[in-house]
Amino acid sequence: MIGKIKNYFKESISELRKVNWLTKNETIQMTIEVIMFSLFFAAAYGLVDFLLIKGIFALNFIKS
User: Fold this and answer.
1) pTM for the full model?
2) What gap in Å lies between CA 41 and CA 16, rounded to an integer?
3) Which of 1, 22, 31, 61 could form a disulfide with 26 if both were Cys (CB 3.0 to 4.6 A apart)?
């Protein structure tokens, strides 16, 4: 049992050494891209929500 656990950790470390890790600059660039993407879609969904709410209120006002 202990041998299997040791083997598991050895293999895990071996696999982690094979990973192609991002550089600091790549990490910063990707982080900025994710933040910009998130802000863009938050603004887009916010605008759609605002317009739908205005449209619903306009329809309710017309019905009255």
Assistant:
1) 0.63
2) 34
3) 22
